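Lab notebook: predicted structure, single chain.

Context: the supervisor wants predicted structures on file for every construct in the current expression panel, including those that have not yet been purified. This is the next one on the list. No modifications to the sequence; it matches the entry in the shared construct table.
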Amino acid sequence: MTPHPLLAELAHRAAARAHAAAATCPCGAATLADRPDATVVRHADTVAKAHAPDTDPAGLAPRLAVAAALPDVLLPPLAPAPTLLHGRLVTFWPYGAPVDPDDPDAAPWEAAGALLAELHRTPVPAGLPPMRGPAKAARAVALLRAAGAHPAVAPVLGAWRTLPAWARAEAPMPGAGALCHGDLHLGQLVRRPAPDGPWRLIDVDDLGVGVPAWDLARPAAWFACGLLPPDEWTRFLAAYRAAAGPAVPDAGDPWPGLDVPARALTVQSAARAVTKAAAAGRPLDEVEQCLVDACARMDSLPSQVAADFAK
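Prediction complete. Output recorded below exactly as produced.
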């Protein structure tokens, strides 16, 4: 099958950069992702990413600048500015080894917590746009509404209505704001240099100013839903606290600050799951049903904190 022009040209550009940066090149090439919102290819030690078609150049530029300025936290780009290719903004990055999905015991929860804490403690640079987490949650819900009839739609939308306006991207985020990643999960960590260098955060598309608890919300939500083992959640939270992360108190109950973001990420994950299931005409799997059930509990008990809606 002939690849579409963007994918072919992206691979060509990655190869050109890889060959220019090394005297010898093993020419290992791979397509790492090919989705409507991102196309990513690797050639040897170079990764090229075509960002989503609606990516704002004025928003991406300061995000790249933050990554370049924080190489001990974020993987720095190979070039300071994006390239325009087939109508898409393209950035180039060094390759980093991702988390092994087949070895959950080796998941770098401590590294994730420490890196997030350092990111959140970093002074926010001038001109950085808002963190895009709430906007992504709102987009997931909008796609769910457009997906058609499905019995799981109602509880997910009901849970969405219990959230405050800022978590639905309908009002500014509260507080002065911290430097946030915006879409933290284990797929956003790589080792650089591969295969056993230090861990770094990747993907700056959602990075910006916002509520730092949002970056803890996905693991918090999965823990609250019973999908993340307590010891893994504890490792992550303890590492974040040990590194003086500002999103939660350094001791005591973390849930008052995590409640709203964890609810929002539960709704976002459930919305995506139901949308995919509806498109495929299939029933929800066990994990997807667990997320929808959590939404149903949120809708019926909107005043409960996340620790309670997990029960």
